Input
Amino acid sequence: MDRHQLWRRLLNSGVVRSTGQHIVLSTREHTEQYANFVSSNVPDTLRNELVAHLATEASSAPLHVRPHGGTAFLGIGCGYWYAAMLAEHLKFPSVYATKRVLDWYGFDRGQADMLRSQARRVVIVDDVRNSGASLQKLVELVDRAGVELLGALYILDRSATPATDVRFRDRHVPVRALFTHHMPTWPDRESCPLCAQGIPYSTDTGGGVEEFHRF
Output
């Protein structure tokens, strides 16, 4: 199916939806619209289509990922699940990073050594781009590992200003998403209209109030 059809299927299946609830994301941003790409939430047919489209995007300009090019896919959280499937689809290595606290990301369990030994360059893979803060942290992580960043690839960019590139060392590298669809978020309680209306946090979707107070 083409991307338009796939997007409609994602909406119809509830993977992407407007909940009407007050959701607090792991980034502490508030929203009422949600995109949940965890494996248990995505039907097999849609999951396979997403991976196929990610593979096409990775192989096309401007990323130009090629077999035997010394490239690995780096994922974090739910993004690693797609990075691993994408890597298997294209016969590339994959590695993962860990979000240990809100503003700190790191490699563990030998992942940095594996990255340096298996690849000269890396493509960051994630499911959803909200504000771009996580991407910047991953860029810094790749920089510390001493590996060239080839680009970043998302399933959905839900921000008001979709990214086309990110600064890495002395150049800009491409950022691409299969879908761009603005799903408004608010950075804190003070700016959140749902808080102003006294709408309680959801405990069914997102992290709810527990997620907010965990940090």
